Amino acid sequence: MTDKIHMNKYFAFLLLMTCIGSTAYAQYNAPAPLFEAAHCLVTEKHAWLDLQKTKELSLGFRSDEKTMLGDKYLYVIVYTTPKRNEGRIFDIRIKKQDRQRVYNIENTATFVTTAKGVDFPQPPTGGTWAQNQLVTAIQQIEHHKWYVASIGSLQKESKHVQCASTADDQ
Fold first, then answer.
1. Residue 43: what pLDDT?
2. Are 125 and 165 a contacting pair, CB within 8 Å?
3. Smaller CB count within 10 Å for the chain: N or C?
């Protein structure tokens, strides 16, 4: 009888460790649209990110499908500090073309968050309207889960993803 109790406790312990392990690991499994968009940030001809000092990216995102024209957008943040109070935000339009998903980077800006709000060292392209859109996206992303993706995995070629940009290198 004692062996059966120990076996049940051992099984419960293994089950608990499996659940805890999968919860901790979930942070590293970025959803496909985020992973594919981040792929474009590290493989495109633009020098969007300084990859010399890091092996992985801390990412946050929010999708927006309620646009006036019905287009699908993804706001992606690449955090540059462990506190996740500084980073770069990208405004990316997603379209389907043939059998590929096209990620078009339309705007980008470097930002800092403080107790007073979000500040842009250089204002993003598009004036006040674009800046307000990016501030709202940053504030919403701050309250959601963030992900970590290795540079090596992001740089792998994908047959289903096409990267484009209409944004200026900032």
1. 87
2. no
3. N
The phi and psi torsions of 156 (rounded to 5 degrees) equal -65, 140
Please tell me what DSSP assigns to residue 154: H
CA pair distance 51, 121, nearest whole angstrom = 21
Q: Specify the pLDDT at position 157.
A: 86
Question: Angle at CA 104, nearest 5°, toward 67 and 146?
Answer: 75
Helices and strands: H and E segment counts in the chain: 4, 7
**Euclidean distance between the first and final Cα of the chain, in Å?**
69
At 147, which amino acid appears? Answer: Y
User: Left (φ > 0), alpha (ψ -120 to 50) or beta: where does 117 sit?
Assistant: left
Where helices occur in the chain by DSSP H, the ranges are 2-26, 32-43, 127-142, 151-154
Count of CA atoms in the C-beta half-sphere (13 A) of 142: 18
pTM listed for this prediction: 0.79
- Beta bridge pairs of residue 129: none
Q: Where are the alpha helices (DSSP H) in 27-126?
A: 32-43
125-166 pLDDT per residue, tens: 999 999 999 999 999 999 889 999 999 999 898 889 999 998
Which tokens go with 72? Answer: 């699908």
